[in-house]
């Protein structure tokens, strides 16, 4: 896939980025979300969570069904408004903003969903142009250029006139990624982005997300129930249980002890994949006739 350079939202380029150099791009401080249930009872979905996510990171949120992962993710762009606590993104406290300011600030936070959430009666072009048009400040030529740039980034230049119904699941998710990136966000939130896709398509979407992170520096936060997704994509992970972050760690640094079963399972997977990669490398070198003394180690020893 050809990737076209897209200008980064630089630290000095936008008031949204003010303060970003001095604190993590995402900072949740004691955020709380309680839902009122139909029977009148109250349910604490997120309980006083504090979490820092550094600029440029790829951060996974894992946990059992109902643990509060999606609610936590949706607190980051205030799709869910916290009952208490602060949500800071790009140095701004989102909870203190007016509606108009929040609309503006949300351009800095793209989001993709399990079911893609595309406009069915709009072409691929119009889907990607949508977030640029609703802010009404972009000239038509600029929108056109930006839409094509984003579609190139996800390898879908040739689908510009197609409708969502004419696309595969993976292509729909690529359109959703292009749409999320169109306003040049610092942060991309992903809510189970590969859960509706087969494993091959999942791999190619993960490759695209990795490329976006590496080339554009966009910080990615991803909710998933698939440990393989975390292993393949994330640098850091937090395990969520009953509305709380019970542990967080660097994915590539398996430890002797973890607090949670999911943490232990993820470590085991990381170790297994590292061993497999080391073996593959060894076999490839052997097949290529590289003398044993000159072979490069695969790195499994580190984990
Ligand atoms: N709008 C709402 N009203 C009432 N309860 C809600 C609402 N949204 C979420 N919940 C409840 O909050 C809890 C956490 O939900 P959430 O979707 O964040 O969990 P999750 O970890 O993402 O689960 P899953 O992996 O199944 O999507 C669940 O028990 C859910 O039923």
TrEMBL record:
Pfam families: ABC_tran. GO terms for cellular component: plasma membrane. Residues 26-267 form the ABC transporter domain. GO terms for biological process: amino acid transport. CDD domains: ABC_MetN_methionine_transporter. Gene3D superfamilies: P-loop containing nucleotide triphosphate hydrolases. The keyword Nucleotide-binding applies. One of its GO terms (molecular function) is ATP binding. Keywords: Amino-acid transport, ATP-binding, Cell membrane, Membrane, Nucleotide-binding, Translocase, Transport. Belongs to the ABC transporter superfamily. Part of the ABC transporter FtsEX involved in cellular division. Important for assembly or stability of the septal ring. This is Cell division ATP-binding protein FtsE.
């Amino acid at each position: 896939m050809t990737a076209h350079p897209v200008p980064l939202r630089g630290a000095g380029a936008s008031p949204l980025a003010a303060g970003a150099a001095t604190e993590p791009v995402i900072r949740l401080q004691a955020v709380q979300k309680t839902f009122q249930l139909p029977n009148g009872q109250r349910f604490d979905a997120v309980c006083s969570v504090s979490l820092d996510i550094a600029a440029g990171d790829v951060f996974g949120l894992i946990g059992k069904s109902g643990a509060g992962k999606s609610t936590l993710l949706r607190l980051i762009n205030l799709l869910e408004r916290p009952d208490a606590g602060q949500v800071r993104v790009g140095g701004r406290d989102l909870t203190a903003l007016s509606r108009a300011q929040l609309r503006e600030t949300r351009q800095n936070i793209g989001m993709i969903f399990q079911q893609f959430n595309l406009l069915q009666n709009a072409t691929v072009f119009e889907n990607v142009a949508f977030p640029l048009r609703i802010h009404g400040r972009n000239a038509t030529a600029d929108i056109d250029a930006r839409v094509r740039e984003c579609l190139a980034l996800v390898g879908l230049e040739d689908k510009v006139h197609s409708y969502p119904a004419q696309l595969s699941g993976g292509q729909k998710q690529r359109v959703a990624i292009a749409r999320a990136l169109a306003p040049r966000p610092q942060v991309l939130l992903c809510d189970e982005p590969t859960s509706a896709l087969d494993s091959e398509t999942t791999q190619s979407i993960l490759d695209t997300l990795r490329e976006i992170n590496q080339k554009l520096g966009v910080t990615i936060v991803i909710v998933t129930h698939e440990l393989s997704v975390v292993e393949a994509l994330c640098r850091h992970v937090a395990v969520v249980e009953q509305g709380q972050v019970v542990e967080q760690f660097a994915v590539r640094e398996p430890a002797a002890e973890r607090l949670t079963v999911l943490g232990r399972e993820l470590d085991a997977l990381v170790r297994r994949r590292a061993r497999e990669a080391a073996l593959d490398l060894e076999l490839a070198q052997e097949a290529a006739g590289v003398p044993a003394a000159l072979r490069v180690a695969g790195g499994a020893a580190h984990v």
